[in-house]
């Protein structure tokens, strides 16, 4: 009985010590960009084994990388990549990129009024800077990450909504910058079916060589806007898949909307693109 009481007292008085320990998911850094003519912050997550091994790691670039998306995405990745959940995916470095001007940087064409069937969906001060933002990633941020951390050649771009539009456009314009793309419910409605028009421009046969996972939400509650966004997005995804030398897929989540699909897209996308069976 005395041993039991002693054990209980030890547990009682040591618990607060553990409760006060802080848990850190990553660090915040910044880069003075000449291309963007501004300071660009970003957050870095390093996998648990990084400090105790000499391994190189894939790098996942997370668009719309605010603190909440960073925490959520890293939580899914770390859970799936550790022994607790069976080491289902590879460990990876995550670089989350917060927005400084979202509509400016993530859209591939300039629009002041974004219209659909004659209806103005939204107005903007700045759009169409995707090409410059892509150059910032390729020529400034990625080289900085590669020289600072032990990175492998596997490089994944994750984008949702406008971020998905940007990722899809990067796949068309500069496909070799990233080896893999996780594209979540992209804004395919942008600029009158911009993505499909870009793929079909000049009747060129575009061949892809990147692994791509597309996730689409059920936005039928938005009427023609939601239905057309999925129709055009799925058509684009099919073009990529049919003309791709790498295994790619698209998945429709009937019970999820534009605002709720991200978690399942991260889970399924990571298992598709980051499977440990690919080593």
UniProtKB/TrEMBL annotation:
Coiled-coil boundaries: none
InterPro entries referenced in this protein's UniProt entry, alphabetically: AB_hydrolase_fold, Esterase-like, Mycobacterial_A85_antigen
Pfam family, one: Esterase
Record carries keyword Hydrolase: yes
Keywords on record: Hydrolase, Signal
Signal peptide: 1-19
Keyword check for Glycosyltransferase: no
Alphabetical list of SUPFAM superfamilies matching this protein: alpha/beta-Hydrolases
GO molecular function: hydrolase activity
Protein name listed in UniProt: Alpha/beta hydrolase
Species classification: Bacteria, Pseudomonadati, Pseudomonadota, Gammaproteobacteria, Alteromonadales
């Amino acid at each position: 009985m005395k041993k039991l009481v002693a054990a209980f007292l030890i547990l009682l008085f040591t618990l607060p010590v553990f409760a006060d320990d802080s848990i850190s998911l990553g660090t915040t850094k910044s880069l003075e960009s000449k291309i963007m003519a501004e300071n660009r912050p970003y957050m870095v997550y390093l996998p648990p084994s990084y400090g105790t091994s000499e391994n190189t790691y894939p790098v996942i670039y997370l668009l719309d990388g605010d603190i909440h998306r960073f925490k959520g995405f890293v939580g899914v990745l770390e859970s799936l990549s550790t022994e607790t959940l069976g080491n289902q995916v590879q460990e990876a470095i995550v670089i989350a990129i917060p927005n400084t001007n979202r509509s400016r940087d993530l859209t591939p064409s300039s629009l002041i009024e974004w219209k659909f069937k004659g209806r103005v969906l939204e107005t903007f001060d700045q759009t169409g800077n995707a090409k410059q933002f892509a150059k910032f990633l390729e020529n400034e941020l990625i080289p900085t990450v590669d020289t600072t951390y032990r990175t492998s050649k596997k490089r994944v771009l994750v984008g949702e909504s406008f971020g998905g539009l940007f990722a899809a456009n990067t796949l068309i314009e500069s496909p070799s910058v990233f080896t893999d793309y996780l594209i979540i419910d992209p804004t395919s409605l942008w600029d009158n079916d911009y993505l499909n028009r870009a793929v079909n421009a000049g009747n060129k046969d575009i061949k892809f060589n990147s692994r791509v996972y597309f996730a689409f939400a059920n936005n039928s509650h938005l009427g023609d806007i939601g239905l057309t966004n999925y129709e055009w997005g799925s058509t684009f995804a099919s073009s990529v898949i049919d003309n791709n030398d790498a295994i790619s897929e698209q998945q429709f989540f009937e019970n999820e909307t534009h605002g709720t699909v991200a978690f399942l897209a991260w889970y399924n996308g990571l298992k598709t693109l980051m499977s440990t069976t690919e080593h």
